Amino acid sequence: MTVSARIIRYAHISLQTKEIIMKTTPIAVIGGTGKTGHYLVQELLKKEYPMKLLLRTPENFTLQNPLIEIIKGDARDFDAINHLIKGCSAVISKIGQPVGEKSIFTDATNNIIKSMNGHGIKRYIAITGVNVDTPFDHKNEKVKAATDWMYQNYPKTTQDKQDEYEILVNSNLDWILVRLPLIIPTSEHFKTETNLTDCKGEQISAADLSEFLVSQIEDETYTKQSPFLYNVKE
Questions:
Q1: What is the signed CA dihedral for 180, 61, 123, 133, rounded to 10 degrees?
Q2: What's the pLDDT tens digit per position in 79-95?
């Protein structure tokens, strides 16, 4: 066997080993309920990933599956986050802002990073809005206007999301923060695009989003980056 053939063979074995590890250790999920969270759970089940779900009110979660373990708790509680993440291979967060409460995003992210570092876990996949800015952006006027509107109407939450991005940039995790337009709660699939500088679509289907998030468990294309994800008209 030639040297190049050995390299290809060992690389293939390494990828297979990584996939086996990912499929036999749970994925920690935050925000697996709500209007769009269940699409993520269904996509993980479809791909046969075991998972641990952090739920504030587990009594409202009726889906039963041997691949699902429920952890009761709140993302602001470090002990709950630490219990969730222990023994997992990656973390996916679709956490939303609880109505009437202080903005949650930096509090949750700091807990997640602390726990992941403690357990030696690197892969973190999360979502945010189009209002988050990066140094690489060339946002179109419509997206800029939407960002300004968010700062005018929801200044604390919007700034907290921007701070979340900065915290991740300064972390040692292999993170991806996916920036999203309006999420449409549908199981339909459409053509999607990713873009590191601008959001050229006005919506993303929950099914397409879930498929993309699950793909990022093993796909390292956007590691330490914040792409926009959106549907495009065909």
A1: 20
A2: 999 999 999 999 999 98
Which tokens hold the place of 84? 């969730």
User: Which tokens hold the place of 190?
Assistant: 């459409």
Domain at 182, CATH number: 3.40.50.720
Q: How do strand 192-195 and strand 228-231 relate by DSSP bridges?
A: antiparallel
Residue 73 sits in which domain range?
A: 22-231
Classify residue 9: in a domain, yes or no. no
- Decide which of 108 and 2 is more confident: 108
Max Cα–Cα distance, the chain, nearest Å? 65
d(CA 80, CA 152): 33
Spatial distance between the Cα atoms of 233 and 156, rounded to a whole number of angstroms: 34
pTM, full prediction: 0.89
Residue 1 lies in a domain: no
**DSSP code string of 57-82:** -GGG-----TTEEEEE--TT-HHHHH
| DSSP 8-state assignment for residue 145 | H
Q: Is residue 209 part of a domain?
A: yes
